[in-house]
Predict the 3D structure of the following.
Amino acid sequence: MNSKQKLIQTLGELLIPVLGFYAWNWDLNFIFLFYFIDLFAYQVFTYIKWKKIATFWGLVFSSKTFLFFNALFAVGLAIVIFIEIAISFVYPTLNLGVSLIQFLTYSEWGIPQVVMLIPLVVLANYQQHKMLFVATGKFRRMSEIQLKQNALFSLVLLMLASLIFILLTFFGATNPQIWLWITVLSKTIFDLWIFPLWENRMKKT
């Protein structure tokens, strides 16, 4: 996948939260619930990538690898908790449990949106996996350590961002529209600039 295709894919992925907010009346919590689905898919495909690397290099599922994937889950759970705390500052009267049920059952054209969103998110992650990792033979060039470093870098950076989100909302920065654009622009910058720079740096070490 060349840089132009990567740009198109990234912008396509950002279209859903923007449409959700402006066209489908999603609140900010709905936006982040969508991103939580993507976060879960990311963790699943990190394991799938590890399996591909392990098969190629003849690696076994060691206790260190077990601890690594548990650490990924723990960091992902912390991210969800931190963001939901921040959401409670943005919408003080919001019932998070009710909001989750509304998100899962909300319908467009008579179809619950979760029925469309989950396959769409999984498909996007699968296509990225096939095009960027398998078709390019990247699994032959990437070590197990590099994969783990990349995954932890992404999630730790996201966890730090969620902590900043809590602090700013706690001190009164609670405009949902501003947070929508901060979120989508930050993800764009991360996908197109920060993470590629990180990967290139890791290749040189």
The beta strands are 107-108, 111-112.
